[in-house]
Amino acid sequence: MISAITGKLVRIQEDRVSIEVGGLSYDVLVSPSTARALVPRREQEVRLETIFYIQGVPGGVGNTVPVLVGFLSEVDKEFFEHFITVGGIGPKAALKALTVPTPRVARAIEDSDIATLSSLPGIGKQRAARIVAELRGKVGRFALRAEGEEAERQAGGAVAGRVAAATAIPPVDEVAAEALEVLLQLGYKRQEAEEMIRQVMAKRPELRTAEAVIQEIYRSSEHARERRGT
């Protein structure tokens, strides 16, 4: 199983990139959003997290083809794995649909935003409704990454200053530790993540799982966004 690939980015197309490794060039399927993000890194060494699968039916008519699908991060890869669990959405259809960054798609799912989802290539209203029905409540943490980045831009770094004096999360708290690990994977700074978890667990001490803590953080960020009028 190939879980990642590192090499020189030698070619970029809308639906795939070519990575040169040890004199060999590997084609890796990517979403349009990922392809655009990689443009500034042409001719540089890159690392893509990957999913490997066999296209075609073994033993059937025609050949089977090994396929690599690439992602900029483990977070994007994990979201993709959720996305293709929806009935009728295979890897190629999912890649074609992801023309915008993962956090925006995740937010649309959590907000039941059928209009945004149905505007994605290959996703009509019926399929958008099915995506919401099957994934809503499961992908909120992927939308949090966008909230964190936006908050940092608006605050101009003030968040880091505020959380510097925050009480650290006790390492013995397994729920908090697991939630912290998730937020770090989503790109949050440690102090910022610790502060968000501390606030949520102080407000909702009955929460007993990391997933519940993450969902509460997502809901809190949604309320803050609504108050800002965005």
**Tally the helices: what do you get?**
11
Physical arrangement of strands within the biggest beta sheet: 3-2-1-4-5
Global shape: globular
Helix content: 40-55%
Q: Low-confidence parts, pLDDT < 50 over ≥5 residues? A: 147-172
What is the typical, i.e. mean, pLDDT?
Answer: 80
Q: Decide which structural class fits the backbone.
A: alpha+beta
Q: How many beta strands in the DSSP annotation?
A: 5
* Number of spatially distinct domains: 3
Q: Summarize the helix and strand pattern as letters.
A: EEEHEEHHHHHHHHHH
Q: What does this protein structure show overall?
A:
- This protein has 230 residues and is α+β, with helices and mostly antiparallel strands.
- The protein folds into three domains: 1-72, Nucleic acid-binding proteins (OB fold (Dihydrolipoamide Acetyltransferase, E2P), Beta Barrel); 73-138, DNA polymerase, domain 1 (Orthogonal Bundle); 144-228, no CATH class.
- The protein has helices at 32-38, 74-83, 91-97, 102-110, 114-118, 125-135, 140-155, 158-163, 174-185, 190-203, 210-228, and strands at 4-12, 16-21, 24-29, 45-55, 65-71.
- The chain has a five-stranded antiparallel β-sheet with strand order 3-2-1-4-5.
- Strand 1 and strand 2 (16-21) form a beta hairpin.
- Helix 9 (174-185) crosses helix 10.
